[in-house]
Amino acid sequence: MRVVLQRVKHASVHVDGQETGSIGQGFLILLGVSDTDDESIADKMADKICKLRIFEDENGKTNRSLQDVDGEILVVSQFTLYADCRKGNRPSFTDAGAPDHADRLYEYFMERCRMHVEKVAHGEFGADMKVDLLNDGPFTLMLDSKDLLTK
Questions:
Q1: Cα separation, 5 vs 12, whole angstroms
Q2: Would you write out the chain's pLDDT as a tens digit for each of its 151 residues?
Q3: Short-list 61, 65, 2, 66, CA closest to 34
Q4: What is the distance between the alpha carbons of residues 136 and 24, in angstroms, rounded to a whole number?
Q5: Alpha helices in the chain (DSSP H)
Q6: What are phi and psi of 32, to 5 degrees?
Q7: Catalytic residues, which ones?
Q8: Does the global pTM surpass 0.85?
Q9: Which spans in 52-97 are helix H?
Q10: CA distances (Å), 137 to each of 42, 62, 134, in order?
Q11: Dmax of the chain from CA atoms?
C-alpha cells in the first residue's frame, strides 16, 4: 500500500463536476493498493496515519495528531502510485492491485480511518477526479507499507 499524505487546510474532490467529498483541516490521502496488500496492512497503515503527530502545538512544534486537532480525512484512490517508469517513456501499472481487490481495500481503509476520526470523505474509485486543496506547510509525506511495516 502506498500513500501520499498532504496536511491541508481544506480539500475537495469532484467527479463529473459534482463534489463527492470535502474536508476542512486534516489530511488529503492519495491511496494506492497492490495485489499483495490485505486488511492487516490497511489496518496498520490507517492506524499509523491517524496517529501521526504533524500538526503544530502552541509552541509551533509538530506534536499534535489528527485527533488532537479534530482533523478530517479525504481519501482519493490513486493506482498511479504504483507506476513503474524504469523502461521507456510510458509507465507500466502492473504492480497496481486489480480493481476489485483495490476497491475493496480502499473501502476497508476508509472504515478503519473512521475508527480514529469522525469525518472521512472520499472520491469515487476508478473515476476521473478533480482534486482541489490548500496544502498546509506544505507538509507532504510518502508512506509505503513495504518500508513502514518491515522495520
A1: 14
A2: 999 999 999 999 999 999 999 999 999 999 999 999 999 999 999 999 999 999 999 999 999 999 999 999 999 999 999 999 999 999 999 999 999 999 999 999 999 999 999 999 999 999 999 999 999 999 999 999 988 776 5
A3: 2
A4: 11
A5: 39-51, 99-114, 145-148
A6: -115, 140
A7: 78-80
A8: yes
A9: none
A10: 27, 11, 9
A11: 49
